[in-house]
Design a protein that fits this description.
46% of the residues lie in helices and 18% in strands. The relative contact order is 0.12. Helix 2 crosses helix 6, helix 5 packs antiparallel against helix 6 and helix 6 packs parallel to helix 10. By secondary structure, the protein is an alpha/beta fold.
């Protein structure tokens, strides 16, 4: 008969193997493990996944997500996840981790909606006009509620496929999120229809999708990267456009210094206000919908909208 110590060792080995098997399957403590690249994807995973999932966000709260670096532990989270939700081209470190650790357990949300190209500033031509060329794809797709609703549908469908035992719950919650986003889209459309101005001056070009959806024109002080330093020529150009269009508000965002926006505002006699690109949330109790509605209020005030 085996000794008590051998029986204990055998039992421990069985438990250890069972735990490893559960982690390898992408589930722990009976829940599907989901890793998300940044806040808007975390929000969808939590709202649609509900109590059936455990969600880990690879971008820490308050951090700027564009250039996030992953720790070995975070890479391990990607390897153990049942589903990784990300946007290729936005965060190179996340792209690399997914490609190496979870290529067959990932949802790239950029594949489920049409993406817009970013514009990159070029030098002035000899005639004095500022030239622009198409850059890479603009990642800020979640700022268009219609596209974001399509992404919500895709997240719900993928969760249902990975965890069919809870498919009905995922599908129901995805439909509820889609309906809430449709209502948000309707509010934006109604309130931004009758505005005295259509130009939105922002600290960096994060609002291309929002502007495209609601017939606005974004004038970015910098391009896609919020950490880029604008050239003196670019500052002069933005100030000139702000004066010409009667801009009353220069927008900055919560995760980046407002100094450049404040400089433009002083030069043209405008005020500053927050327009949040929702790359993360910084205040307790905030979520995607509360921030987007605050953005809508800020826009209607700045643009002189009557509705």
């Amino acid at each position: 008969m085996p000794s008590p110590s051998k029986l204990l060792a055998s039992a421990f080995a069985v438990l250890l193997l069972a735990g490893c098997a559960e982690r390898a399957s992408g589930f722990s403590a009976g829940r599907l493990d989901v890793v998300t690249a940044f806040y808007p994807l975390q929000f969808l995973a939590e709202r649609i996944g509900g109590a059936e999932v455990t969600v880990v966000n690879l971008t820490k709260p308050g951090a700027e997500p564009h250039d996030v670096e992953l720790t070995p532990r975070q890479v391990g989270r990607v390897a153990d996840a049942g589903l990784a939700i990300y946007l290729t081209g936005f965060q190179p470190a996340v792209d690399q981790a997914v490609e190496q650790e979870a290529p067959d357990r990932a949802l790239d949300v950029g594949t489920v909606v049409p993406m817009l190209h970013a514009e990159e500033e070029h030098a002035h031509d000899p005639g004095g006009e500022e030239e622009h060329a198409e850059g890479g794809l603009d990642p800020h797709v979640w700022l268009d509620p219609q596209r974001y609703a399509t992404i919500a549908d895709a997240v719900g469908a993928r969760l249902a496929r990975v965890d069919p035992a809870h498919a009905a719950a995922y599908t129901s919650r995805a439909q509820a999120v889609h309906a809430e986003l449709a209502a948000l889209d309707a509010d934006f459309s109604a309130r931004l229809t009758t505005c005295r101005r259509r130009e939105v001056v922002t600290s960096h070009e994060a609002f291309h999708y929002l502007a495209d959806r609601y017939g606005l024109t974004e004038v970015g002080i910098t391009g896609i990267s919020p950490e880029a330093e604008p050239s003196p020529r670019r500052l002069a150009h933005v100030a000139e456009e702000a004066r010409a269009t009667g801009t009353t508000t220069i927008f900055f965002e919560t995760l980046v210094s407002p100094k450049v926006a404040e400089t433009i505002a002083r030069e043209v006699g405008a005020r500053t206000a927050v327009l949040d690109p929702l790359e993360g949330v910084s205040e307790p109790g905030e979520d995607y919908f509360s921030v987007m509605r605050a953005n809508l209020t800020a826009l209607t005030t700045a643009l002189g909208c009557s509705s």
